[in-house]
């Protein structure tokens, strides 16, 4: 599965802790991230991460393009709901595309925990089945 990992600045420490806690599950998948988030994840967890541009510089839109092209299976986006983001339209567009394409999306740690446990149990394998049918 292709997993997108994204965190706003005040949520980056939480995402790093989350990735470390669930590393045995997460490391079995291909990881993608916006620029600064990806840099921190690879430096602090040792995992290999494909990095897009930083969120405010188009990274959210790059991940959105992967979603629109059926190349992202799960999105863990630790949003900061208390800080205004200069690229709020990009954040909304990314979330909207997850809804358009039924891509499982967590916008906080509580939901991310449920999704990652589901990932481990194989609950998201319908994504692969759906893709095979479309090929
Ligand atoms: O702003 C972001 C998501 O909207 C995250 O971008 P960075 O990972 O580059 O900080």
From TrEMBL:
Q: What is its EC number?
A: 4.2.3.3
| Residue positions of the active site | 60 (proton donor/acceptor)
Question: Where do the TM regions start and end?
Answer: none
Q: Name one Pfam family in it.
A: MGS
Q: Which reaction does it catalyse?
A: dihydroxyacetone phosphate = methylglyoxal + phosphate
Which protein family is named in the record? Belongs to the methylglyoxal synthase family.
* Record's protein name: Methylglyoxal synthase
Q: Which organism is it from?
A: Rossellomorea aquimaris
């Amino acid at each position: 599965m292709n997993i997108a990992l994204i965190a706003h600045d005040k949520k980056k420490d939480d995402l790093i802790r989350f990735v470390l806690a669930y590393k045995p599950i997460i490391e079995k998948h291909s990881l993608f991230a916006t620029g600064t988030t990806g840099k921190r994840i690879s430096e602090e967890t040792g995992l290999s991460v494909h990095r897009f541009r930083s969120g405010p510089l188009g990274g959210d839109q790059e991940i959105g393009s992967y979603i629109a092209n059926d190349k992202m299976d799960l999105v863990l986006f630790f949003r900061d709901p208390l800080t205004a983001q200069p690229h709020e339209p990009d954040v909304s567009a990314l979330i909207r595309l997850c809804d358009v394409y039924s891509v499982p999306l967590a916008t906080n740690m509580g939901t991310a925990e449920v999704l990652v446990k589901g990932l481990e149990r194989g609950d998201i394998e319908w994504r692969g089945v759906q893709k095979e049918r479309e090929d």
